[in-house]
Write a structure and sequence with these properties.
globular; about 160 residues; mainly alpha
């Protein structure tokens, strides 16, 4: 038995962000950071990391419900960020992901994530991973931006 802070629990900074940040702000930050992170991943990802991205994209496709899809989606986006090999960016995106796991975000996602939209996101994920695998940084960046713009449009309607 260990006493102390639960490492899975949000820290004070993350709790503050969860309280102060709106879904629109989260999407703005993601749109600023993640396309560039995808481009960096094309330059730095190992073959094993790309294979893991492909496995996580497939897990999104196989997810039986919104919760399973969201978990696989979050892991896929984090794997892309980790492959960029920039600890500062990874830390920032981990903070964003903490906000994405909030109750409000969950309700918005559940309301906006139809089966048709899930299929669109799955195809977008596959294209992002393919661009990273093929080392096409401009394409990876553009595909990530297209994906996030679709999420933003569906989430914030």
């Amino acid at each position: 038995t260990f006493a102390g802070r639960n490492p899975a629990a949000p820290d004070d900074n993350a709790r503050g962000l969860m309280t102060l940040s709106s879904p629109a702000e989260v999407m703005e930050v993601r749109l600023i950071l993640e396309p560039r992170v995808a481009a960096l991943a094309t330059l730095r990802a190992s073959a094993a990391e790309v294979a893991e991205m492909a496995r996580l994209a497939a897990a999104c496709s196989e997810a039986g419900d919104v919760s399973a899809f969201e978990q696989a989606d979050g892991r896929l986006h984090r794997s892309i960020a980790a492959a960029a090999r920039n600890s500062m960016l990874l830390n920032l995106l981990d903070q964003v992901d903490t906000v994405r796991r909030s109750e409000l975000w969950g309700r918005l996602k559940a309301a906006s994530l139809t089966s048709e939209r899930r299929q669109v996101y799955i195809r977008q994920h596959e294209r992002i991973v393919a661009a990273i695998r093929d080392r096409l940084s401009d394409q990876a960046s553009r595909r990530m931006e297209e994906h996030l713009l679709a999420v933003q449009r569906h989430l914030l309607r």
